[in-house]
Specification:
By secondary structure, the chain is an alpha+beta fold. A five-stranded mixed β-sheet has the order 1-3-2-4-5.
Length: 247
């Protein structure tokens, strides 16, 4: 099987090379036997379809190993130098606190809106024990998620991130330009600065998104705390049990 897989890889590489040559040198490649090679590859796949499954499984395992390594490095960095991991992200609670809870969130995600309520309860009860760190992960299937994240980032430049954050989640069904400006006005933000800062927000948001990709974050909300990560609908009792185990 190993020899067969090696042959298959050779066929595929040659086929890709042929395709490249046909794109680069269409006249010279016109008589190149790419069709024959393609037929040979297809014949191997028909006779041994398990090769595809094995190669896909091997690739998935490799990808998961890379994610696990990235998460381990991240957790070690978080423990050794939490300020570097937190960087310029908005925080709530005592700093420094023994427990750092990192949240990857999307302002248009309904599960994030529900988690927002639970996290508020958590911070009220355990304000001196937990530092909550907000990281942006606007999902591509949420049309307003990135715009909302930019607006919240701009509010943070005027020290009003959490108030703006609450306004977005409270009015999640009305996300849009009208709401972004209304919340900014209610918080007495400098509107000219707010609008200009929104244009500068994307690089910082992209950094959070790249970190999420490195960690293999499957969706929102996603949490990391005390060497553990979990996603989906958060339960206050789950977080509190982790707090208790850390004391």
């Amino acid at each position: 099987m190993g020899q067969l897989f090696r042959y298959l890889r050779i066929y595929l590489i040659i086929s890709l090379l042929c395709l490249f040559l046909s794109w680069s040198f269409p006249v010279q490649a016109a008589n190149y036997p790419s069709l024959q090679l393609e037929q040979q590859v297809l014949e191997v796949l028909r006779k041994h379809p398990e090769v595809i499954i094995e190669s896909v499984q091997a690739y998935q395992q490799q990808q998961q190993q890379q994610v696990n390594q990235s998460r381990q490095v991240f957790l070690e960095d978080l423990q050794a130098n939490p300020k570097a991991v937190i960087a310029n992200s908005p925080t709530m609670g005592t700093i420094p606190a023994k427990n750092v809870l990192i949240e990857f969130s999307d302002f248009q995600c309904p599960y994030c809106a529900e988690a927002h309520k639970k996290l508020h309860e958590l911070l009220v009860k355990h304000r001196n024990e937990v530092t909550l760190v907000y990281k942006n992960l606007p999902l591509p299937n949420h049309a307003e998620a990135l715009s909302a994240a930019k607006a919240a980032w701009a509010a943070n430049q005027q020290g009003k991130f959490w108030e703006y954050h609450d306004g977005l989640f409270t009015n999640q069904q009305q996300l849009g330009e009208t709401l972004y400006l209304d919340i900014a006005k209610k918080l007495n933000l400098d509107i000219e600065k707010f609008n200009s800062d929104r244009l500068l927000a994307e690089p910082s948001i992209k950094q959070d998104m790249q970190l999420a990709q490195q960690l293999g974050v499957p969706g929102t909300p996603f949490f990391v705390m005390n060497g553990q990560n979990y996603s989906g609908a958060v339960q206050l009792t789950d977080i509190e049990s982790k707090l208790a185990s850390a004391t």
